[in-house]
């Protein structure tokens, strides 16, 4: 028995057995709910899911976000005003916070102190008075200040007891609270990294992008300039650039001057990285298609080439910011950067230049702790962002 279908008559239309309905690429009929959730997710959502898997990066991001939020309200967070002096407590060591007194819960408090002078070494010794319980106050009135130099205020998150003292990180040679000065110094040290990296990225991406995309004589000149700048030792270059700034400049002008110096020193590495990437990407077919459609060079570089290695730029930014923080700290520590009355972590570390000072008053090195934590946090955050920028790997 013949089971084959009869051949159609000559000239008769062929029968189609394939559906002519349009193909729905987003069809999830054959997918599980978990698969469809991933398949339909946007690029940003995929990046967020990949970033959440990096626990250290998430913790570092939260830590840095808290720090940058804190610099907005540092006057409120600091127990004392930036310039408040406690002349009776010069070089006072850090006080310990206690919760229990004589077996009873009192709440957070510190013991009062009595100063004695060692006549042999002329060193001040502080003895805790166990009968003087000074409870720590919260959301209280304390030293007056000007919020961002504009609004008068006297509210603090934490304050010492009435007629008491609260030196959780000790005091310096003028009796100023080290913890309050660290909180105030974060505003300068953290923002100088962001402002500096913005200036550096602007120069690096523009100059490196044009050199890599166009090549030719412009690329040759840029590479020679970069080689000259990178061959100059850093310390003499810092000295020369710092000497340009007049001593009559206001603190805000000095701040921006140091930012420009750090940006000028950091853009060369990024420019070379951008150039090398664009030299490879400019040969791609989509670049030729954009050129044939009449797109300008700025649009091709900004909309088509730069996003192609955004993960590299993100990693470079998160590594460069702590480098600029270290640069400002080093410049200020050497006396070439910011100067009083500006307060930064580098300025605070100038108190610990002498070995004898460190031996007698080691708490003056505490401003190093936030520098170390911030640098580690930026590095961990950069690792997480670099992986998240390419979620398909």
From TrEMBL:
Keyword Transmembrane helix attributed: yes
Statement: the UniProt record of this protein carries the keyword S-adenosyl-L-methionine: no
Transmembrane segments: 56-78, 188-213, 253-274, 305-325, 360-381
Database matches in Gene3D superfamilies: MetI-like
Subcellular location(s) per record: Cell membrane
Entries under InterPro entries matching the protein: MetI-like, MetI-like_sf, OppC_N
A Gene Ontology cellular-component term: plasma membrane
Residue intervals of the ABC transmembrane type-1 domain: 186-382
The name this protein goes by in its record: Peptide/nickel transport system permease protein
Pfam family of the protein (one): OppC_N
PROSITE patterns: ABC_TM1
Family membership noted in the UniProt record: Belongs to the binding-protein-dependent transport system permease family.
Keywords: Membrane, Transmembrane, Transmembrane helix, Transport
Topology term for the membrane: Multi-pass membrane protein
Any GO BP annotation: transmembrane transport
Primary residence: membrane
